[in-house]
Write a structure and sequence with these properties.
The protein is an alpha/beta fold. It has 11 helices and 8 strands.
Length: about 260
């Protein structure tokens, strides 16, 4: 299973002071040496962390494939079609959100044209979707070959159950009793498992990500048929304490633990 490192929050730290460091590009060389397979970054409309200049520099110098997450937005599409990352993963985006809150609206009126624009430039297109057979069928109908399952629901339930994590007011409200949470966790994990198998049968490459951490990643990583996990915040947060290389290696160990 491939590990994609999301480097957005290296840029988040830089933006706290609006200066030039830390440089996300520097992290990519460490990531490659540590065995990371690809780099994920999100060029948001509001440029809250990754900037266009970051993408240019990274695509010019990075020794790893680049997966650019992006909204269905004509300006962003134009920029990325010019810069040509290896893959463009279309995600929903809302200015008020702290992080991506769910899967893509697969009936978005501009979705087909956006997919075509990237495909015409030779850029692989992935759709970030909520896990369900219906969403997989819609993705197939749109002609894409890759989907990334949103693991946010699973991650939120896991964190609430095992860490007592309190959700931000604009996130999903969850029950407090552990029995209900355990049932929800099993249901969300089964939903991911069944969606992965269904996607495989449809000929899709199935990836996953969002909110996974060192404690929860093993449950998802062992699902049959997943080809890639994209993880950012947990690794970058750990890297502040132990360094990026060790943080990556610890995540790789957690992914392969049985």
């Amino acid at each position: 299973m491939r590990l994609g490192l999301n480097i957005d929050h290296i840029a988040t730290l830089r933006e706290a002071r609006k200066i030039h460091e830390p440089d996300p590009l520097e992290a990519i060389f460490i990531a490659k040496n540590a065995g990371v397979d690809l780099i994920t970054l999100h060029l948001r409309e509001d440029r809250r962390h990754i900037h266009e200049d970051d993408v240019k520099s990274i695509l010019k110098h990075a020794p790893l494939p680049i997966n650019a997450e992006c909204a269905i937005d004509p300006e962003i599409t134009k920029i990325l079609c010019h810069l040509r990352p290896f893959k463009a993963t279309l995600v929903p985006e809302r200015r008020a959100e702290i992080t991506t809150e769910g899967g893509l609206n697969l009936k978005h009126p501009q979705l087909k044209d956006t997919i075509k624009a990237y495909a015409d430039c030779g850029i692989e297109v992935a759709l970030f979707i909520d896990p369900s057979v219906q969403n997989l069928e819609l993705a197939c109908a749109l002609g894409v070959k890759v989907v990334e399952l949103h693991t946010g629901k699973f991650s939120n339930v896991f964190n609430t159950l095992y860490t007592g994590f309190k959700h931000h007011k604009n996130r999903l409200d969850l029950p407090k009793d552990s029995a209900t949470l355990k049932n929800m966790l099993e249901e969300s994990l089964e939903e991911l498992a069944q969606s992965t198998l269904a996607g495989q049968k449809m000929g899709l490459e199935v990836c996953a990500g969002h909110g996974l951490n060192y404690a929860s990643v093993g449950l998802v990583a062992r699902l049959e048929g997943l080809s890639e996990l994209n993880i950012g915040h947990a690794i970058i947060a750990r890297a502040v304490i132990v360094g990026l290389e060790q943080a990556i290696k610890s995540m790789q160990e957690a992914m392969h633990a049985r």
